[in-house]
Design brief:
- It is a single chain.
- A six-stranded mixed β-sheet has the order 1-2-3-5-7-9, with helices on both faces. It has a three-stranded parallel β-sheet with strand order 4-6-8.
- It has one domain: 2-enoyl-CoA Hydratase, Chain A, domain 1, CATH 3.90.226.10.
- Helix 1 packs parallel to helix 3, helix 3 runs parallel beside helix 4 and helix 5 packs antiparallel against helix 6.
- The protein is built from ten helices and nine strands.
- With 232 residues, the chain is α/β, with parallel strands linked by helices.
C-alpha cells in the first residue's frame, strides 16, 4: 500500500494504492514506515506523495468501513487519529506533496505535515464530511483549527469548500502550487534545505509538541504579554 525510499537524508513516503483510501492496514503500514525514519540518525526530512497523480488520498475506505465489525472500526478511528497526531509532531521536517485529490482523511494527512505543496493545474483539497452526512470529530476539528485561519477554517469544515492549488495557496493552506512536472522536484529541494533541522529529533519534535500538544502556549487564555512578563 505504501513505499518508503531514501535519497541521502530525504525519506520519500509514497502512497501506492490507487485512490489511497484509509483503513487499518494503511494506517499501520505508514506507522511502521515512520518508525524507520525516526530511528535514522543525523539530518533528515520526510516527503509524502502519491504514486497516482489523480489521487493523493480520496478519504476513508467506505466499503471496508461498511463491512468491518464495530470493534475494527473503533480500532481504526483510534489508530488513525493517533497517526495524525504522530505526524503533526513528527521529529523531522515533513512536506506533503498533494499531487492529486485529497478528501477527508487525505486532507487531514496533508495538514498534519509541516509544509504542503500542491499541483496547480488540477485536484482539490476538501473536508467533505458534511456533504456525506458525517459529523467531523473533535480531533479533526482541532487539527483544522490549528492549521487554518479562522475564515478558511469555517469554509473548510462547515461549507465543504473545494480548494484548488491556486485558491489553497491564496488561503494559506499550502505554501506553494506548482505544475505537476516540477512539483516533486520543488518539494525535494525544499526538504533538502530544511533537513538539517531534523538532526536533533528531540528538539524538533519537542517544539511541535509545544505548538500542538497539551496546554500548548498558543492555546492559553493568557496573552503573550503576560506569558513574557511572568515566565518562570
Amino acid at each position: 500500500m505504501i513505499k518508503l525510499e531514501r535519497d541521502e537524508n530525504i525519506f520519500k513516503l509514497i502512497l501506492d494504492n490507487g485512490e489511497n483510501r484509509w483503513n487499518t492496514e494503511l494506517v499501520r503500514e505508514i506507522d511502521t514506515a515512520l518508525d524507520e525514519v525516526e530511528q535514522s540518525q543525523g539530518p533528515a526530512a520526510l516527503v509524502t506523495s502519491s504514486s497516482d497523480n489523480k489521487f493523493f488520498s480520496n478519504g476513508l475506505d467506505l466499503d471496508w468501513i461498511s463491512s468491518a465489525p464495530s470493534d475494527e472500526r473503533a480500532a481504526f478511528t483510534k489508530e488513525f487519529m493517533a497517526l495524525m497526531g504522530r505526524i503533526i509532531t513528527f521529529s523531522v521536517p515533513s512536506i506533503c506533496v498533494v499531487n492529486g485529490h485529497a478528501f477527508g482523511a487525505g486532507f487531514m494527512m496533508a495538514l498534519a505535515h509541516d509544509i504542503r505543496y500542491m499541483r496547480s493545474d488540477r485536484g482539490y483539497l476538501c473536508a467533505n464530511e458534511i456533504e456525506i452526512g458525517m459529523i467531523i470529530p473533535d480531533p479533526e476539528i482541532a487539527l483544522f483549527k490549528h492549521k487554518l485561519s479562522a475564515n478558511v477554517f469555517f469554509e473548510t469544515v462547515q461549507l465543504a469548500t473545494r480548494w484548488t492549488g491556486s485558491t489553497a495557496k491564496a488561503a494559506g493552506i499550502v505554501s506553494e502550487a506548482f505544475e505537476i512536472d516540477v512539483l516533486k522536484d520543488q518539494a525535494f529541494e525544499k526538504a533538502r534545505s530544511i533537513a538539517r533541522l531534523g538532526s536533533n529529533r528531540k528538539v524538533y519534535g519537542g517544539m511541535k509538541e509545544r505548538l500542538f500538544g497539551k496546554s500548548a502556549p498558543n492555546n492559553s487564555l493568557d496573552g503573550a504579554a503576560h506569558l513574557l512578563k511572568e515566565q518562570t
